[in-house]
Design a protein that fits this description.
Layout lengths: L7 H24 L12 H16 L18 H11 L5 H4 L6 H11 L2 H12 L5 E4 L15 E5 L2 E8 L10 E7 L10 E7 L5 E5 L16 E10 L3 E2 L5 H37 L1 E2 L2 E2 L4 H29 L7 H25 L1 H5 L5 H11 L6 H13 L14 H11 L1 H5 L4
Parallel strand pairs: 1-4
Antiparallel strand pairs: 2-3, 3-7, 4-5, 5-8, 6-7, 9-10
Length: 432
């Protein structure tokens, strides 16, 4: 029997985290609401508040829980982490307070798996300590997230690699200490064996931020969190190579599965927050003929949201269980399904919750605009949902063979004919 219950001792930690987030982390969301605020070290007051909170998390043994024991983490298991991450998913500051924010969490995984001892000491150690931030610089303006279309090149010059090219939506490139960049090193190799990962210090000569890119209605001149960057003859030693030459796709894939499941875990928290807000609004808002909760359409929206949340949560738990039972390869379809459903449920539920709150919901006095932006990014980050739908469909169809006959095996006349032939003797006997 599959048991999705959290470990009793870990449940105590989750209970602590829920109270801690409510009391001490949510106020940070109110004080510093900008999406990039948790990573912006120029916010001195925020940093003064952040450090003691992180120390409390460390004291509870909940710091950087995304890493397995084999990678130097606490190793609580993915099922347990569902219950923690759904608490953090309702906040903007929560992941940074708990040391599991993206893209640093994924970058720490690949550094732990593929980094040399020197790389781990220089980059992984401060990253896990919360003393550094990183960027995953992969997406390109023309190729998007498809590594077979990348044009950013790295050419070997003696013992150094010289990187040239542009990257798009390199989140936190303007706030980080180092970047992990994917560049083509073997252009004539098979499509998924052309690129290599490199670690580039943010102050490397030749690294240029073309412009900051914000989200949704942020002014163009504002400091965005997703810069458009260029590598102009950026020179790094071969010791900056992360993983094997031409193994960039493999290295990237090793971080994406975990990243997607953690996004899904946090989406549970986002949807639960929307459901809570919808229910409170429905029973509090008075109309001429009673509270809003008496309207059948409102009841339908709340019921459909609750049902969708339950279904989605079970899908996340199944994926987490498969990770915990070393079925990560077999879980590829479910991970892709999580990528699709995370975006789908977030978009639908946030819109319903915003609509239920009327003009207040569309104002800047409630968090729905930020939630809608999050929902949109869930559908685009790590590859658009359409790519994952296509991948799921292809893998599922590989399990089937074409029908040998003209009509499908479920063709009723054909089945009737076959049944008559199979039971011909019995049917031929006279009825008594």
């Amino acid at each position: 029997m599959i048991d999705f219950s959290p470990d009793p001792e870990f449940q105590k930690k989750v209970d602590w985290a829920r109270a801690f987030v409510k009391e001490k982390v949510e106020p940070l969301d109110a004080l510093f609401p900008d999406p990039t605020a948790p990573y912006d070290r120029s916010l001195k007051a925020a940093r003064r508040i952040l450090k003691p909170l992180q120390d409390e998390v460390r004291a509870q043994g909940l710091w950087a829980c995304h890493l397995d024991k084999s990678l130097g983490g606490p190793g609580y298991g993915q099922v347990n982490l569902v219950f923690l991450n759904e608490v953090l998913g309702a906040t903007n500051w929560g992941p940074v307070v708990f040391g599991c924010q993206g893209p640093d969490s994924g970058n720490s995984e690949i550094l732990a798996r593929f980094g040399t001892d020197e790389q781990k000491e220089r980059y992984l150690k401060p990253l896990l300590a919360g003393e550094a931030y990183s960027c995953f610089s992969m997406t390109e303006p023309r190729g998007g997230a498809d590594p077979t279309l990348f044009t950013c090149r790295a050419e070997l010059d003696g013992q150094d690699w010289v990187i040239n090219g542009e990257k798009w939506y390199s989140s936190h490139a303007n706030l980080c200490d180092f970047l992990i960049v994917m560049a083509v090193t073997d252009p004539e190799a098979p499509p998924y064996e052309r690129a290599t990962m490199f670690i580039v210090p943010a102050d490397a000569p030749g690294f240029e931020i073309i412009r900051d890119t914000g989200v949704f209605t942020e002014p163009l001149a504002a400091k965005g969190g997703h810069p458009y960057v260029r590598y102009n003859n950026v020179r790094v030693p071969d010791t900056a190579r992360l993983g094997p030459r031409a193994g960039g796709f493999m290295v990237a894939q090793s971080r994406l599965g975990g990243g997607r499941i953690h996004h899904a875990m946090r989406t549970i928290g986002l949807i639960q927050k929307c459901l809570d807000m919808m229910a409170r609004r429905a029973i509090s808002r008075e109309l001429r003929d009673g509270p809003l909760s008496r309207k059948q359409a409102v009841q339908f929206d709340i019921a459909e949201t609750w049902i969708a949340l339950k279904q989605f949560r079970l899908l996340v738990l199944e994926a987490a269980w498969m990770f915990d039972t070393e079925q990560e390869h077999e879980a590829r379809e479910i991970i892709s399904a999580l990528k699709v459903t995370s975006a789908d449920i977030a978009q639908k539920v946030v819109w319903k919750a915003m609509h239920l709150h009327g003009a207040l919901g569309a104002s800047n006095e409630l968090p729905f605009a930020h939630m809608l932006m999050t929902a949109a990014m869930l559908g685009l980050a790590d590859g658009p949902t359409e790519v994952h739908k296509s991948a799921i469909g292809r893998r599922i169809m590989k399990r089937y063979a074409p029908d040998p006959n003209l009509f499908t095996e479920d063709h009723l006349p054909s089945k009737l004919e076959a049944a008559r032939a199979y039971y011909a003797a019995e049917l031929a006997e006279p009825d008594q």
